[in-house]
Q: What sequence folds into this?
């Protein structure tokens, strides 16, 4: 099972990413844009995801993925139960969410670097 500490370890390696505590919830941001956030009990992770694709994602695996809270529906956002994913899937979800927030050049340079290759391949 993936934990918040697994996500934290990955997020700390991502350029321009930082951790914030907002209303007792851990969030990871690039600038002011949140790309990953956790429920207060740290069992559900919200992450950036294309709005037009999220209904299909949730419908395909409803035991794993959840639609965003009503207050977050206007954002490119979806949620996942941490108990339902492994570390490789977590890395993919977090990296894709982060890539939505940084300039393409920053993402490309990181992913082509030795640390980026190690991060994306596990």
A:
């Amino acid at each position: 099972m993936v934990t918040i500490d697994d996500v934290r370890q990955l997020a700390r390696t991502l350029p321009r990413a930082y951790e914030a505590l907002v209303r007792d919830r851990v969030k990871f941001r690039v600038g002011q844009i949140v790309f990953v956030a956790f429920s207060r009990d740290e069992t559900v992770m919200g992450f950036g995801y294309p709005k037009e694709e999220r209904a299909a994602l949730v419908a395909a695996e409803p035991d794993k993925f959840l639609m965003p809270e009503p207050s977050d529906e206007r954002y490119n956002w979806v949620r996942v139960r941490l108990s339902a994913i492994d570390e490789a899937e977590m890395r993919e979800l977090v990296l894709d969410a982060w890539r939505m927030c940084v300039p393409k050049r920053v993402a490309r340079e990181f992913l082509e670097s030795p640390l980026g290759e190690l991060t994306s391949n596990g």
